[in-house]
Amino acid sequence: MIKYILKRLILLIPLLFGITLFAFFLLNALPGDPVLGLVGERANPDVIEGIRKEIGMDKGFIRQYIGYLKLLSHGDFGRSYYTNREVLTDIAMKFPNTMRLAFASMFIAVPSGIVLGFISAYKRGRFIDRFINMVSIASLSIPVFWSAIIIMLFLSLKLKLFPPSGTGDIRFLALPAFVLSIPAMATLSRVTRTAVLDILKMPYINTARAKGLPLIKISFVHVLKNAIIPIITIIGLDFGSYLNGAVVTETIFGWDGIGRFTMDGIIKRDYPVIMGCIIFGTVVFVFVNLITDIIYHYLDPRIRLHEKSE
Amino acid sequence: MDRLFAHHLFCLLAVILFLFSCTSSDRLEGYIYYRLNTNPTTLDPALIVDVSSASIAAKLFNGLVRLNDRFEVSPDIAKRWEISRNGLRYKFFLKKGVRFSNGREVKAQDFKYSFERILELKTKSPNTWVFDKVEGAKEFQKGQAKEVKGFKVADDYTFEIKLRMPFSPFLSMLTMTPAYVIPKEEAEKWGNDFASHPSGTGPFTLKNWLTNRELVLEKNEDYFDKKARVRGIVYKIIPEDLTTITEFELGNIDVISLPGSAYSKFKNNKKWNKYIMSLKGLNTYYLGMNLSRPPFNNLNLRKAVFYAIDREKILETFYEGRGRLAAGPVPDLLRKWDVKAGVNYNPEISKEIIRREGLSGVKVNMYVTADQDVIDLAEIIQAYISEVGINVNIKQLEWSAYKDAVNKGEPDMFWLSWWADYPDPENFLFPLFHSSNIGPAGNRTRYINKEVDTLIERGQNSINENDRNNFYKMAEELIIQDMPWMPFWHRTDFLIKQPWIKDYKVYPIYTMDKGIEVAIER
C-alpha cells in the first residue's frame, strides 16, 4: 500500500510539470497585457517596464517558465501582482473555508442522495420513484447561479432565515452548502438508483430474501456494500471539484474560498494567482483520487491497487 | 407510505431549517456599512489606481490640500498657501499638531519624503505623472540627483514646490491620492506590506482587513479636523449585485450604488424612492474612432456616424435617462464656457454622405469589453450604423485584452469612458487629445492636431483662469469639429440609503468623501 501511495505521489511530479507548462503556455498565448491592468491610465513607460522586469515579463517564455519552476522548487508560488501578498499564504487562508463548504455540502448531499437513490430503486415505477427522478433531473438541469439566487431570495430576503452573504459560522455556510449539494445529491441519487437496481437483480439478493432477512439488513449488508463503488467514484469527483472551489456559489454568496480567489485572479489576469490555484487544484485532485482508490481497495478487495498503478 | 414519507421529509426539513437559521444581526454598533464589489488592491497611496482603494485611502490619509463641495481647492494639512506670480513656486504653510496614526507629528519633511517616494522608480508608482513637472523630477528619476530640487523644506511647517514651467492644474492634482502624506518610518518598516498596514493622518484608521471579505475602519479620535460622527466604517466585499441588493433590503448594508438592473425597481417603489440619491458624475462616455488609418481617417465618414446615431433616444430608453447628453468631451460640470450644439441625428444626411464618399458597405470592427451592458449598447449602435450602410463587426474582449488592443490601435471603433481624477478640464483634454499621449496614455483615437496641442499646452501654462478657459474652449471646439470620438453622455449615478442614515453626501470624485459628515440615527 505504501509503495502504491509513493508511486502515485511520484507521478504527481511529471503531472504537475505538464500542467504548469500547459497553463503557462496558455496564459502567455492570451492576448492582453496584465501589467496594463496594474498601472491605471497614465503610468510612465519606465515604470511599466520596471514592473514588467520585476515580474519577469520582459523575458522570453522559456526563461519565464524556468524561473517559475525554480520558484516552485522552493515551495514558493510567487506573489500576487496586485496585492503583493504571497499566493501560497492566501491559498492556505482560503482553503479551510473551501474545505468547510465542501464538507458541509457533501454532508448534505451524500446521505440524502444515497437514501433517495435507495427509495427510488425500491419503489421503482411508483409515484415516489417518478417524483425523485423528476426532481433529480430538474436539479441537474437548473444552473447553480439560478438556484442560488432563488434560494437566497426565498430563504434570506423573504423568510429572513439565513444571511445572504459572508464567510463565517454555520448560518453563513448553510445556503452555499445547500446550493452546492443540490446537483451532487441529484447525481448520487441517480447513480445509487441504477447501482441498487443492478444489485437487486442478483441471485444472492433473492437468496437473502428467501432466508427471511429483514429489508434493512439486506440493504446495508448486501446491496449498499456492492453498490458502493460507483457511489464512491461520484463522491470523489464531486468532492475534488468542490475542494478546488465552487466558483459560482462562492461568488454569489460572497464566500471567501479558493473558487472566488481563482475567479478574481482570472478577471484581473493575476498570473501567479492563476498558476498557484491550478497547481493547488491539481494536487488536491490527485490526493482525492488517491484516497478514493484506497477506499475502493478496502471496500472491494478484488480491486488491487498495485495493478492499477501499473 | 408515500404520503407518510413526504410528511417525514417535510418535518425533517423544517427541523433542519429551525436549527440552522438565526439571522441575528452581526453589525458593529455605530459603524456604517458600505459595499465594495472587489477587494481593494492596495492602500499604499503611491500605488493606488483603482476607485475602491482610492475611496478608502481618502479616509485614511490627507494631503496638503483637498477639494471642497464646490470643487475648489481648500486647506487640508496646509492651512494656507502662496503661489508665485509666475506660477512656478508653491509655498505651503502646514498646520501644527497634525499627527500620523503612530502618534508622530507631520512635518514638511514628510511631504518631501512622500512625494519623492512617488517619483522613485523602485517604488514603481504608476502615478509619477502627478509630480513629473516638478523641477528636478526627471533628474531624480534618472538617478542623476539624490533629491528632487523642486521639493524644498523651508522649515518644519513650510514646504515649497517649484515647477519647471507654469502648470495651472497642479494645485488640483495635489488633492489626488498620490499626494497624500505618509510616515517614512512606517513605510520603511513595512516595505511592500505598507500597502496593507497604512498609517496616515485621516479621520479613520485601518482596524482590520480580511481580503475578499471585509475591511474595517475605526474612527481616529486624534484627527486634526472635524471628527467622524460614526464609530467606524465596514466595507463588505460582495461581488454580486443581486446579493448586495438582498443585503441592503435586509438592512445589512447602509448605502449602495444602484446597479442599472435595479434602478426601476427602487424608483417605482414608494417605500424606497425617497431614499434614492443621484450623483452627477465627472465622466464622459464615448464612441472612439481610430483616426490613424482608413476608413475613419476620413472626416466625412466620422460625420456620417454622428448623423447615424440617435444618442438622445438611446440615453432615454436603453440608459433610462441615467445621464446627461454630452456636447463635447469636457463634462458639463467642469465646462465654464458654451459650446455650439453638435450634430443631431439625421440618418438621411448620413446616407447621403456615405453615398457621396462611395463608402457604402464599408466594414468596420467595433471592440467592446465583455460587459453585458456594453454589449447591449454596442448592438444598438451597430443597428443604427448598419441602417446607413456601414457594416459593424462587434468584437468582445476581456478587459485587459481589450485595453491592450485599443492601446495598440487595433479597433476601428471602440466604446470607452473617461473619469476625472481632479476637477479640471485639462484632465479631459490633455490625456485624451494631446498628440504626446497616443495609445496607453489616453489618446486612443490617435488624434493629432498641432493647433489643439498648442491650445491645451497654453491652457496648462496659463496662470490667468479666464485665459486658461479660453484656450480650453478653443481646443474643445476644434476637437468637436474634428470628431475623433462621438461623446455620448456624462453618467449620473444613483445611490440608495437606509432611512436611518443621515447627512450622507455623494461626491463625484472619490477623494472628496472623508466620511466625516455621515451619521446613523435609529
TrEMBL record, chain A:
One Pfam family recorded for the sequence: BPD_transp_1
Domain of life assignment: Bacteria
Membrane association type: Multi-pass membrane protein
Keyword line: Cell membrane, Membrane, Transmembrane, Transmembrane helix, Transport
Record keyword Amino-acid biosynthesis present: no
Major location (coarse): membrane
Cellular component terms per the entry's GO annotation: plasma membrane
Domain (ABC transmembrane type-1): residue spans on this chain: 95-296
Family note: Belongs to the binding-protein-dependent transport system permease family.
Protein name from the UniProt record: Peptide ABC transporter permease
Organism listed in the record: Dissulfurispira thermophila
Record lineage: Bacteria, Pseudomonadati, Nitrospirota, Thermodesulfovibrionia, Thermodesulfovibrionales
